[in-house]
């Protein structure tokens, strides 16, 4: 029975499972694949379709698995001749002699965001994050808050630390802590530290004074050698404004900066060189 690769794509997409669609977009000379052939890669044991078999397909599967972790697209050209080398082309151990270009399309969410707290800021932030292709998981101890929450892919009515103990935190994910109390905030972050989870970002909404209190308690509990390089508090970029919607934009901007690896945030006009500055 022939498998419809697009039906499989829709099936896994509805389950919120990340995948890569590999497409042969160009071919020169001899090779085992025709332009337009596709392969859907979900994990190392789950893939459908073909881009020609042999060393090319084996390499394509491994490359797709890497891109699923990185959540990136890629176009790459291959020479199917183990005895030759061409600039900007990956040589594979085949004897066909032709060249094939594959396009790897990552299909999935930008990243997972754990939102601890679904109050005013949490609601405003989730509304923004969904438009940016983040997968939003909201956790709150207050049932009315959970019931009324709209813009989350998952909602969990349970104690904050119980969620972490039962479900864990994905590696390189993003954690936003905006619970209704600073005690709960501290419990969430400390639980992540104790369980040695490794999100790429943990942001806590608080004032400078509350942050000083948290750091004092944290150093007493875990020692001064604790790595807080992925901890961001006060949360967000300094854009100004104090409404839930403005704070949400500030936090979302910081998350995007983290995702894109931006260590220094600048106005776009600062990209101009000195000869073209107008201010």
Give structural attributes:
single chain; 279 residues; alpha/beta; Rossmann fold; 2 domains; 6-stranded mixed sheet; 6-stranded parallel sheet; 8 helices
Note the topology.
Elements: H1 5-14, E1 19-28, E2 38-43, E3 46-49, H2 54-70, E4 74-79, E5 90-91, E6 99-107, E7 111-116, H3 120-131, E8 134-140, H4 143-148, E9 154-157, H5 160-167, E10 174-177, H6 182-194, E11 201-204, H7 208-222, E12 231-232, H8 244-259
Parallel strand pairs: 4-5, 7-8, 7-10, 8-9, 10-11, 11-12
Antiparallel strand pairs: 1-2, 1-6, 2-3, 4-6
Helix pairs in contact: 3-8, 5-6
Summarize the structure.
By secondary structure, the protein is α/β, with parallel strands linked by helices. 35% of the residues lie in helices and 23% in strands.
Describe this structure in words.
- This protein has helices at residues 5-14, 54-70, 120-131, 143-148, 160-167, 182-194, 208-222, 244-259, and strands at residues 19-28, 38-43, 46-49, 74-79, 90-91, 99-107, 111-116, 134-140, 154-157, 174-177, 201-204, 231-232.
- The protein is of the alpha/beta class and 279 residues long.
- It has two domains: 18-107, no CATH class; 111-259, Rossmann fold (3-Layer(aba) Sandwich).
- The strands form two sheets. A six-stranded mixed beta sheet has the order 3-2-1-6-4-5.
- Strand 10 (174-177), helix 6 (182-194) and strand 11 form a beta-alpha-beta unit.
- Helix 3 packs across helix 8 and helix 5 packs parallel to helix 6.
- The radius of gyration is 23 Å and the shape is elongated.
- The mean pLDDT is 91.
Overall CATH architecture of the largest domain: 3-Layer(aba) Sandwich
Overall mean pLDDT stands at: 91
Q: Biggest sheet, open or closed, and with what strands and sense?
A: 6 strands, mixed
Structural Rg: 23 Å
Instruction: Give the helices and strands as they follow along the chain.
Output: HEEEHEEEEHEHEHEHEHEH
Tell me how many strands there are.
12
Give the termini separation: 67 Å
């Amino acid at each position: 029975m022939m498998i419809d690769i697009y039906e499989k794509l829709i099936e896994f997409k509805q389950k919120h499972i990340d995948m890569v669609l590999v497409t042969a977009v160009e071919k020169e000379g001899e090779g085992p694949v025709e332009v337009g052939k596709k392969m859907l890669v979900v994990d190392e044991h789950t893939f459908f379709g073909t881009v020609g078999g042999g060393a090319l397909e084996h390499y394509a599967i491994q490359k797709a698995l890497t891109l699923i972790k990185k959540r990136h697209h890629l176009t790459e050209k291959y020479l199917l001749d183990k005895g030759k080398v061409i600039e900007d082309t990956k040589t594979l151990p085949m004897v066909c002699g032709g060249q094939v270009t594959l396009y790897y399309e990552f299909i999935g969410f930008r990243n997972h965001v754990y939102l601890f707290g679904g109050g005013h800021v949490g609601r405003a932030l989730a509304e923004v994050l969904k438009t940016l292709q983040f997968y939003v998981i909201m956790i709150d101890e207050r049932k009315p808050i959970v019931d009324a929450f709209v813009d989350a892919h998952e909602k969990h009515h349970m104690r904050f630390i119980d969620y972490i103990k039962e479900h864990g935190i994905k590696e390189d994910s993003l954690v936003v802590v905006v619970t209704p109390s600073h005690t709960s905030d501290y419990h969430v972050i400390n639980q992540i530290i104790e369980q040695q989870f490794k999100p790429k970002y943990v942001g806590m909404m608080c004032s400078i004074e509350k942050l000083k209190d948290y750091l004092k308690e944290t150093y007493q509990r875990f020692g001064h050698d604790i790595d807080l390089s992925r901890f961001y508090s006060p949360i967000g970029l300094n854009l100004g404004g104090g409404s839930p919607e403005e704070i949400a934009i500030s936090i979302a901007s910081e998350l995007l900066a983290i995702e894109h690896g931006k260590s220094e945030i600048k106005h776009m006009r600062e990209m101009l060189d000195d000869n073209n500055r107008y201010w």
